[in-house]
Design a protein that fits this description.
Structural class: alpha+beta
Strand content: 15-25%
Largest sheet: 4 strands, mixed
Number of strands: 6
Strand order of the largest sheet: 1-4-5-6
Shape: globular
Low-confidence stretches: none
Number of domains: 1
Number of helices: 3
Distance between the termini: 29 Å
Mean pLDDT: 84
Helix content: 25-40%
CATH architecture: 3-Layer(aba) Sandwich
Order of helices and strands: HEEEEEHEH
């Protein structure tokens, strides 16, 4: 299935699409909802700054993935970069996904192993 995406979509819109696609492909997901701080900025309420937006797991395929969702022009914070790197060092699949990758993301969700490049670290 090929999907057209708006390159200007928000992270929340992108996350809704990714989560829906994941559930259709048999994945379970967990998202830590952000807290709004003074000035309207959001931050993830964990004890670990930079924790990825989405944890996806597929028991039947024995896969667990950590994904940071960014807009096409969004940048990783140093904390996000460090956490993704640390997860990879521990053997986890950790990557950044963007709306422009939606077709690859969808194929990856249906595949047995991650196919999208784990970039930006």
């Amino acid at each position: 299935m090929t999907r057209a995406t708006r390159l200007d979509m928000s992270e929340a819109e992108f996350q809704a699409i990714v989560t829906q696609l994941a559930h259709l492909a048999g994945w379970q997901t967990m998202h830590v909802y952000p807290l709004q701080t003074k000035g309207g900025r959001h931050r993830t309420p964990t004890t670990m700054p930079g924790w990825p937006d989405l944890v996806l797991w597929h028991p039947a395929r024995q896969l667990v993935w950590f994904r940071e969702l960014k807009t096409d022009d969004g940048r990783l914070t140093p904390d996000q970069r460090d956490v993704l790197h640390s997860l990879r060092l521990a053997g986890a699949s950790a990557a950044v996904w963007r709306p422009s990758q939606i077709n690859d993301i969808e194929r990856t969700l249906w595949a047995d192993r991650p196919a999208t490049k784990e970039t930006e670290l």
